[in-house]
Write a structure and sequence with these properties.
GIY-YIG endonuclease; Rossmann fold
């Protein structure tokens, strides 16, 4: 490294004007230890302070004609930003019209000095490999439906995905296994530890402390093949010999990054696959509309293997719990099996109404809808405030009546109907991961269903119409995914009953025609030119600034708005515009938006009235979830 005199550094700053590489003269004292990917601190501008950064490239000389600032502070010689991960971060930032620093926070964990020293000491005792892994294969891009069933060895999808990852490991290749839910991550990790040595498994889950997370990150820098298990951030794991990326249940909202760069794990996985040429597999019980699009255009190959469909009965009734559901529960309990009952909402009551005039009760603070929680108290679904002193705005009445039953009241009703049977409630406030097998009824809200060894003898889906009528364009797609994952907890020979599910979805779910359901959902979106048939971006900020940016966009770009921001958390000055565009226009639009936002907001500052923190004058989301 002593032959290199100039380092090209990516500064870890959210300022868009600093989103490029800067050349620095390397001080003689650190020329022998600085490496590509090292953490450094560099001077910038007229201030006396130093900025954090990463060395992206080392060169002999610079094309810059002026005098270079000197790089004298090397934070660590460990190459934490590998060339592959830098390319991935750069591609993600360019796609999302954000700075690369927004992606660095996802890709590179917080440094732990103690963990790093320990890792360096252990690495010094290992003879480094002379060659690096290079794959000559053509990466296969696939999607597969997994059999929705649980047996004595656990869920079928867990068995299949772990077996696939272990096969890659035995072939000398690493696997990144992305699983959205922390409970599923724990199951995957436990299954892997049963079958292979713990040294070959990297726990990249977000529930770890910063030191454990950094330790997992450093383990990925080794040339040894590993299986990385985690959620969104696992896609940035710096493994060298990546053989395959596996993404489970891409329709889960946990795979959507809630802050800048607002990426979905699906898109990051596809970018990394295209750069590394590894295999990629998306697997699920139900197919998202995004997956349907990729299959239809031929980008993904459907490699699903036929399997026996689960035993499922659809009940088109107005009763909340009909005779078919009661019979399924009784039969399962008679043979000593556990029963899972899924309801749409938690608490005593989904909604609360004025007992005088019958109007839906509203929060006195934010006018949001009230519901009755497990303690029988009225709470707001928007701001979570207690409304003990409720007074109806229409008639002044101060008493409430309950609406449709939630999980708590449903549990009480089943307790009366089946005396002597243990009733267990699992919801967002009290989420259980597993319950012991045996005769019992588990009442759960969507996403909080606990596992039981061997699977449930019966699964009953209540409030199906409520799930489908939610104020969301993806209501039917989300409901189908939730129901499919719930049915997958059932054992072989068990019976699932969906109460009150009518029409096309009921017919196709009974036949387990998941591909037809996804096709119908995608084509209905295509008719309206909604994502994922096209992409849709959103810009939020002050109206005057938005106008400057929108006026500079090409005429062929379709703009909807701007209009006042409707979010309950937005300030009154916020306006929002939607931009509908083709996939082929994405790269040029992202570059244009990034440039125009920088020009329009130069010299402006914005502070959040709620938190007091600095905010970007205009927020860009290249893929708005609708």
């Amino acid at each position: 490294m002593t032959g290199f005199g100039v380092a090209r550094v990516a500064i870890d700053s959210p300022l868009p004007q600093l989103d490029r590489l800067f050349d620095y003269e390397i001080a003689e004292a650190i020329r022998g230890t600085i490496t590509v990917g090292s953490r450094v601190r560099v001077p910038f501008g007229r201030g006396a302070g130093l900025s954090d950064g990463f060395v992206v490239e080392l060169v002999e000389s610079s094309d810059f004609n002026g005098k270079l600032a000197r790089l004298e502070e090397l934070v660590s010689s460990v190459s934490v930003l590998t060339p592959e991960i830098y390319s991935l971060c750069r591609a993600v930032a360019d796609r999302q019209a954000v700075t690369i620093a927004d992606v660095f926070k996802l890709a590179i964990p917080t440094r732990s000095v103690a963990v790093e020293k320990k890792w360096l000491a252990a690495a010094a005792e290992v003879t480094p490999a002379l060659t690096h892994f290079q794959s000559s294969k053509t990466g296969q891009r696939s999607f597969a439906f997994i059999e929705p069933r649980t047996n004595e060895f656990g869920a079928i999808w867990v068995q299949q995905l772990t077996s696939r990852a272990i096969a890659s490991l035995e072939a000398g290749e690493s696997t990144i296994l992305v699983v959205p839910d922390y409970r599923d991550q724990a199951v995957i990790l436990a299954k892997l530890r049963e079958r292979i040595d713990a040294e070959s498994i990297v726990d990249y889950t977000s529930q770890q402390t910063n030191s454990l997370r950094y330790s997992a990150f450093l383990r990925c820098l080794s040339s040894e093949p590993v299986i990385v298990v985690g959620s969104r951030a696992a896609l940035y794991a710096p493994v060298e010999n990546l053989g395959e990326i596996i993404v489970w249940d891409d329709g889960d909202s946990n795979l959507q990054e809630p802050t800048s760069p607002y990426t979905h794990a699906r898109d990051v996985a596809l970018i990394r696959q295209s750069q590394s040429n590894c295999h990629i597999l998306f697997a699920a019980h139900a197919r998202s509309s995004e997956m349907q699009r990729l299959v239809e255009i031929g980008y993904l190959q459907d490699i699903s293997i036929p399997f026996a469909v689960p035993k499922l009965a659809i009940s088109e009734t107005s009763a909340r719990v009909d005779s078919l559901a009661w019979q399924a529960i009784r039969r399962a309990l008679e043979v000593g099996d556990a029963v899972l009952v899924q309801v749409a909402s938690r608490g005593q009551s989904v909604s609360a109404y004025c007992s005088g005039c019958g109007d839906r009760a509203k929060c006195s603070i934010c006018a949001g809808p009230l519901w009755i929680d497990a303690q029988g108290q009225p709470k707001c679904r928007w701001c979570n405030a207690h409304n003990l002193g409720f007074s109806c705005s229409a008639c002044g009445n101060r008493s409430l009546k309950q609406g449709r039953a939630g999980a708590t009241r449903t549990s009480a009703e089943f307790g009366k109907a089946f005396p002597g049977i243990k009733i267990i409630e699992s919801n967002g406030d009290n989420r259980l991961e597993q319950v012991p097998p045996g005769k019992k009824i588990v009442v759960s809200t969507p996403g909080a269903e606990p596992r039981v060894d061997g699977g449930y003898g019966a699964v009953v889906l209540l409030d199906c119409n409520e799930m489908l009528s939610r104020d969301n364009l993806r209501a039917s797609e989300d409901a189908m995914r939730v129901w499919s994952n719930t049915i997958a907890l059932m054992k072989s020979g068990g019976l699932a009953v969906a109460v009150g599910l009518q029409g096309f979805l009921g017919q196709k779910l009974a036949l387990w025609s998941q591909a037809e359901i996804a096709q119908h959902e995608y084509h209905s979106r295509a008719e309206l030119r909604f994502p994922p048939f096209v992409r849709m971006a959103s810009l939020s900020g002050e109206r005057e600034l938005l106008g400057k940016v929108l006026d500079a966009l090409p005429k062929e770009i379709e703009i909807l708005g701007p209009m006042p921001e409707s979010s309950k958390n937005a300030s009154t000055d916020d306006w929002r515009a939607l931009i509908r565009y083709e996939y082929a226009q994405g790269a040029s639009l992202a570059a244009t938006l990034k440039t125009q936002v920088l020009l329009a907001t130069a010299g402006t500052k914005r502070v959040s009235a709620k938190s007091g923190r600095a905010q970007r004058p205009i927020q860009i989301k290249m893929d708005t979830v609708i």
